[in-house]
Design brief:
By secondary structure, this protein is an alpha+beta fold. The chain has four domains: about 5-105, Ribonuclease Inhibitor (Leucine-rich repeat, LRR (right-handed beta-alpha superhelix)); about 130-210; about 300-310 and about 330-450, 7 Propeller (Methylamine Dehydrogenase, Chain H); about 455-610, YVTN repeat-like/Quinoprotein amine dehydrogenase (Methylamine Dehydrogenase, Chain H). It contains ten helices and 42 strands. Belongs to the LRWD1 family.
C-alpha cells in the first residue's frame, strides 16, 4: 500500500489545506518514500503545486507522468536518484536541488540544464549563463559535427531509391558511429556529449533526411538491477575479455624519436640524444576487460587508474625495484581487474553494478590467520562515484568490507608508505580524509576510524605524500590549484585547512595559484612533477626549495621553484594524468591521440640535486613518443583514443595504458 494518501498530502501542505487543487507548497521530506509511492493518479490532482520538497527519501527515479504542470521549485536532496531525464516533464521548473545523490554526476547537471529551459538555480547556484551555453553554443557545435560526420561517411551509402531495411540498417550504423566518433569538450562530460549526439543524430535523420526512426533499433543498455558484488575466477574473468585486432604492419618496435617544435642547435640535439636511453617497446596486449555487462560492443567505458601489486616475499615497503610483481590492478566503469602483464590474462575481476570506479591502491597487512599464526596479505582498496571504499583481499577473492568515506564521489585514494593501515581519500565534497582501515581478524572483522579531515577550496584530483616526510606533509593537485597540508597526527586539530598554496607561471607571464592540476607525482625525494590541463603544461619543481620559503606555522602562498618544463601536447583535455618511475628517472604522460610521451630525466635530476640548480629556460622534449597502433574492431578503425593514465612497474618493464575507449593496452620494454 502506498505511503501517500489524500489525507497525508493535505496534512503536509504548507499551509495545511482542505483541497488538493489548492495546494501550492508541499513538504514530503523524511518519509522514506520510494519511487513506487509517487502515485501519478493522486499527484495529477495537484494542479497548482509550485513548490515540492522530496528531500531525505529513498527515490531512485521519477515516474514519467506525475503531471505537475505548474511546478517551479523542486528539492530532491539526499535520495538515491540515478537519472534526471524524467525531470523534463516539469518544463516550468526554475529552481532544482539534488545534492547528495551519489549516482548523479556533472553529466546529469548538463542534462537538466538542456532539458529545463526555464531553470535558473541548480543546487543553489545561478546557472543561467552556463545553461545558455549548453543549450545554444554546445548544441550548435555538436549539430555541426554530426552533420559533417553524415556528409563525410554516410551520405553516399544511402541509395536514392531505398528500402525500409536499408533505411533501418543505415540508421543503426550511423547512430552507433556518430556516438563513438563525435567528441567535444572535456572527457568528464563524455556521457552528456554521447547523450546529446544521439539526440541530435536522431533529429537529423528524422527532419533533414525524412527518415522514420525506429526507437527500438538500438536498445539502451539498462543498469543491472542486481546490486550484489561479484568476484570472478581467472577462467570466468577471461571470458569477459573482448578481442581487439591490431593491424600487423603497425605492431612492431617503436623506436621513433620525437621532433621538437622548437629549433635546437646540433650540439644541443646531440647532447639530448646522448643523455637518453634508447628504449625499444612493443605492444603486447589490448584488453577490453571492463565492459559494462561484459558487452563486446562497449567502447565507451573509461578506464581511470592502474597500480602494480607489491610482491609479498620482498615486503611492500622495501626497495621498489624488487618489490613489485607483473600483476596490475586496473579500474574503470563497474569493475576492477587484476591483469598479468606478461600473458595478458585477467586473473581476477571484481564488479559492483551500480559503481563507477575511479581509483585503486595497494597495501600489505599482516593478518592473523589462526590463533597463533600471522601472515602478510595484499589488500586492494577501490573507490569511485558512490563515495565508498571497497576493501578486497585478493588472494581470497573476497571483498571483506567497505568504508562509507564520503557522500560525494571519490576522485583518488592512496596509502601511506610508512603506515600500512592509513588510507587517504580525496572527494568531490572538497575534502581529503585520512582513515585507519584497521587489520581484519581471521573472521574478517575490522574497525575503521577517521583520523583527519583536510579542507580544500576545490575538488582534489591527485594526491602525493612527500617522500622525505610522508607522515607530515601531503600534496594535492586540485581543480583550482596545488596545495600542501600538515598531516602530523600529534596535532590536536582534526579538521585542517591547507598550509601552503603554490603559485605557477600563467599564460600572461605572471604567477597564479588558480589553475587545474590534474597530474601530480614525485620523481625523486624532492622533485615534483605537476601537470595543468590548461594550458596543458608539465612543470618540474623543487618541493624543499619551494616550501622552505614559507614562514613556519602560517597559511601562505608560495611560488613553486621551477626546475624545468616538459614539452607536451597542446590539448586542453582535462584529466589526462601523468606518472613517474623514480627508480629509472622517467616521467610518463598520455595524450588525446593515444600516444605515450616518455621523458628520461635521470641526467637532469643529478643537476637539479645541486642547491645551485637553476631553472632551465629550455623546454625539455620527450625522449620518445610511443604512437597508438592502428586498431580495428569488426573491420572498423578505432579512433579518438584519449590516454587517461599510463603507469609503469618500478623496474620499467611494463607500461599499462588506460584509455577512454575501454581498452587497457600493455607495452613491454625490450
Amino acid at each position: 500500500m502506498s505511503k501517500i494518501t489524500t489525507e497525508l498530502l493535505l496534512e503536509r501542505a504548507v499551509p495545511k489545506s482542505t483541497r488538493l487543487r489548492k495546494i501550492e507548497t508541499l513538504n514530503l521530506s523524511k518519509l522514506q518514500l520510494k519511487t513506487g509511492d509517487l502515485d501519478p493518479r493522486l499527484f495529477s490532482r495537484l494542479r497548482h503545486l509550485q513548490k515540492l520538497d522530496l528531500s531525505d527519501n529513498l527515490l531512485d527515479k521519477f515516474p514519467n507522468s506525475l503531471n505537475l504542470p505548474d511546478l517551479r521549485v523542486l528539492n530532491c536532496n539526499n535520495n538515491k536518484l540515478e537519472d534526471v531525464t524524467a525531470l523534463k516533464q516539469f518544463p516550468l521548473l526554475e529552481e532544482l536541488t539534488y545534492e547528495n545523490n551519489m549516482f548523479l554526476t556533472l553529466n546529469d547537471d548538463y542534462k537538466v540544464m538542456f532539458l529545463l529551459q526555464n531553470l535558473r538555480l541548480l543546487n543553489g547556484k545561478d546557472i543561467t549563463k552556463l545553461a545558455n551555453h549548453v543549450r545554444n553554443v554546445n548544441s550548435l557545435k555538436l549539430t555541426s559535427k554530426v552533420t559533417a560526420h553524415w556528409e563525410k561517411f554516410f551520405r553516399d551509402q544511402l541509395p536514392e531509391k531505398h528500402t525500409a531495411e536499408q533505411v533501418k540498417a543505415i540508421q543503426k550504423k550511423f547512430l552507433k558511429s556518430v556516438q563513438t566518433n563525435v567528441v567535444y569538450g572535456p572527457s568528464s562530460l563524455s556521457e552528456f556529449t554521447r547523450w546529446r549526439v544521439k539526440m541530435i543524430a536522431e533529429e537529423f535523420l528524422a527532419c533533414s533526411l525524412g527518415l522514420e526512426l525506429n526507437t527500438n533499433a538500438e536498445l539502451e543498455e539498462e543498469m543491472d538491477e542486481d546490486k550484489e558484488e561479484s568476484t570472478k575466477s581467472p577462467s570466468e574473468a577471461a571470458g569477459d575479455v573482448g578481442q581487439v585486432t591490431v593491424t600487423p604492419s603497425k605492431r612492431k618496435r617503436n623506436n621513433s624519436k620525437p621532433s621538437s617544435s622548437k629549433k635546437r642547435s646540433k650540439s644541443q640535439a646531440n647532447a639530448e640524444e646522448g643523455d637518453a636511453e634508447d628504449v625499444s617497446a612493443e605492444p603486447l596486449h589490448f584488453l577490453q576487460c571492463h565492459s559494462k555487462g561484459n558487452s563486446r560492443e562497449d567502447f565507451k567505458t573509461e578506464l581511470w587508474a592502474g597500480v602494480f601489486e607489491p610482491l609479498l616475499d620482498s615486503g611492500a615497503r622495501k626497495d621498489p625495484i624488487v618489490s613489485s610483481s607483473r600483476t596490475v590492478a586496473t579500474c574503470g566503469g563497474e569493475s576492477v581487474c587484476l591483469i598479468d602483464c606478461e600473458t595478458g590474462t585477467v586473473l581476477k575481476k571484481y564488479k559492483v553494478a551500480t559503481e563507477v570506479f575511479f581509483s585503486v591502491a595497494w597495501t600489505t597487512l599482516t593478518m592473523t590467520i589462526s590463533s597463533s599464526q600471522k601472515k602478510s596479505h595484499n589488500i586492494l582498496a577501490a573507490a569511485g562515484r558512490r563515495g565508498i571504499v571497497k576493501l578486497i583481499h585478493v588472494a581470497a577473492d573476497f571483498c571483506y568490507g567497505e568504508i562509507k568515506a564520503h557522500k560525494k564521489p571519490i576522485a583518488t585514494v592512496c596509502f601511506s608508505p610508512t603506515r600500512e593501515t592509513h588510507l587517504f581519500t580525496a572527494s568531490y565534497d572538497k575534502r581529503i580524509a585520512l582513515w585507519d582501515i584497521g587489520i581484519p581478524d581471521c573472521d574478517y572483522n575490522f574497525k575503521a576510524s577517521q583520523l583527519l579531515v583536510l579542507e580544500a577550496i576545490s575538488i582534489p584530483l591527485r594526491l602525493a605524500l612527500v617522500p622525505t616526510s610522508p607522515e607530515q606533509y601531503l600534496l594535492a593537485g586540485c581543480e583550482d590549484g596545488c596545495f600542501a597540508w600538515n598531516i602530523k597526527l600529534d596535532k590536536k586539530q582534526k579538521n585542517r585547512p591547507f598550509e601552503a598554496a603554490f603559485q605557477f607561471p600563467d599564460e600572461d607571464g605572471g604567477m597564479t595559484t588558480s589553475h587545474s592540476v590534474d597530474g601530480l607525482a614525485f620523481l625523486n625525494d624532492d622533485v615534483v612533477v605537476s601537470k595543468s590541463s590548461k594550458p596543458g603544461c608539465i612543470y618540474l619543481w623543487s618541493w624543499s626549495r619551494s616550501f622552505d620559503t614559507k614562514e613556519k606555522g602560517c597559511q601562505q602562498t608560495v611560488s613553486a621553484v621551477i626546475l624545468a618544463e616538459l614539452e607536451w601536447s597542446t590539448t586542453d583535455h582535462p584529466y589526462l594524468t601523468l606518472s613517474t618511475c623514480p627508480a629509472k628517472g622517467y616521467v610518463f604522460c598520455g595524450d588525446e591521440k593515444g600516444s605515450i610521451w616518455m621523458y628520461n630525466l635521470s641526467n637532469h635530476t643529478r643537476a637539479w640535486s645541486s642547491a645551485k640548480g637553476k631553472h632551465s629556460d629550455r623546454c625539455i622534449p620527450p625522449t620518445q613518443i610511443l604512437k597508438w597502433p592502428e586498431l580495428r574492431v569488426a573491420g572498423e578503425q578505432l579512433s579518438e583514443v584519449l590516454v587517461n593514465n599510463v603507469v609503469s612497474d618500478p623496474t620499467f618493464t611494463y607500461l599499462v595504458v588506460l584509455t577512454s575507449v575501454n581498452i587497457a593496452a600493455i607495452w613491454k620494454k625490450s
